[in-house]
Design brief:
Layout: E1 2-6, E2 16-19, E3 30-39, H1 41-48, H2 61-66, E4 73-74, E5 78-86, E6 98-104, E7 110-118, H3 125-128, H4 132-145, E8 152-156, H5 161-173, E9 176-181, H6 186-191, E10 195-198, H7 203-210, E11 215-218, H8 225-232, E12 238-240, E13 252-253, H9 260-272, E14 280-285, H10 289-298, E15 304-308
Helix pairs in contact: 4-5, 4-9
Length: about 300
């Protein structure tokens, strides 16, 4: 089968489309014929070796343990496709079912998933592949932030996949969201129910004018953690998924995966109720995996990037 892999850490150029042996489902797993794979920032962070440096700061230890790398390695965690093989102990799906979920080496024609859910009927494979990691992350960091209905959550870097999910989940739960993003994405944030403002000089004051901030999320890793702490008044009310230096400011770095099956079930429910929709900004072919990760790393995404197999 065809699989995107890398034999050394580095930039997008280390990714190559190779021939590989087909994986097989173990106990509690399924194999899917992949129709689309989600592109996530963690993919290029792993490719760069960010979670593999032996002298990395202690605060990123959990992230390194969650994303170990043995070279050569495949890439990708999220996928949507047709169930092709069922491992021992799996009774919730059958061969041929349409599913989306999380596994490993998903930039490939076949991939093994360790967590999955049936796809809502109204989703395409391309749309479904963009949900697993972003929704799990969004649900996890909202919970960790401690923000409650009626309170206000500030989301820095709100226009990407995780931000898009956070804003909509917050709206569904009665949480007011303030989102920061580039000037071209202001209307997009408002369409997701957020109060919106742009980056750049004076952004902290612009946020203050929008309201009191009870908790904040750093999704972009753009060096704004001190300002987020200032706005919330407490580093314990700030969560980052993108800045490994967060603990130096007393801020929690959230890099450990939560309950993925539960998150997928909640995502399916939100989608079915029309409360969650993350647009696919661009699709790529397997041969364009390097470009997909380079574009993800460049940021300024509106929604999701997806590789179509």
């Amino acid at each position: 089968m065809k699989r995107v892999s890398f034999a050394e850490f580095g930039g997008p150029e280390v990714l190559h489309l190779t021939e590989a042996e087909e994986p097989h489902a173990g106990p509690g797993q399924i194999r899917v014929a992949v129709r689309a794979a989600g592109v996530n920032p963690v993919d290029w962070r792993i490719r760069e070796g960010q979670f593999h440096q032996p002298d990395q700061r202690d605060q990123s230890r959990q992230a390194r343990q969650t994303h170990p790398s043995v070279l050569p390695s495949g890439t990708g965690q999220d996928a949507a496709g047709l169930v092709d093989e069922i491992g021992p102990g799996v009774t919730t799906v059958g061969v041929g079912d349409r599913v989306f979920g999380r596994g490993s080496s998903t930039y490939a024609e076949f991939a093994v998933l360790s967590a999955w859910a049936r796809m809502p009927e109204n989703l395409t494979f391309e749309e479904a592949a963009g949900y697993p990691s972003v929704v799990e992350t969004a649900l996890r960091i909202i919970r960790q932030s401690g923000v409650q209905p009626g309170q206000t959550l500030l989301v820095s870097g709100a226009s990407g996949g995780v931000g898009s999910a956070v804003l909509q989940i917050a709206r569904d739960r009665g949480i007011t969201a303030i989102g920061t993003a580039g000037a071209t994405n202001q209307d997009y944030l408002r369409s997701l129910g957020a109060l919106a403002t742009s980056y750049g000089e004076g952004w902290v004051e612009r946020v203050r004018q929008l309201g009191h901030v009870d908790a904040a999320l750093d999704l972009a890793g753009s060096g704004v953690i001190p300002e987020l702490v200032e706005l919330t008044g407490d580093p314990q009310k700030v969560i980052s998924i993108a800045d490994l230096t967060a603990p130096e400011h007393g801020v929690r770095f959230s890099g450990v995966t939560g309950n993925v099956p539960q998150a997928l079930a909640e995502a399916a429910d939100l989608i079915a109720r029309g409360r969650l929709h993350i647009p696919v900004e661009r699709t790529y072919q397997l041969t364009e995996a390097a470009a997909a990760q380079a574009d993800s790393q460049a940021g300024h995404t509106r929604g999701r990037r997806v590789i179509v197999i």
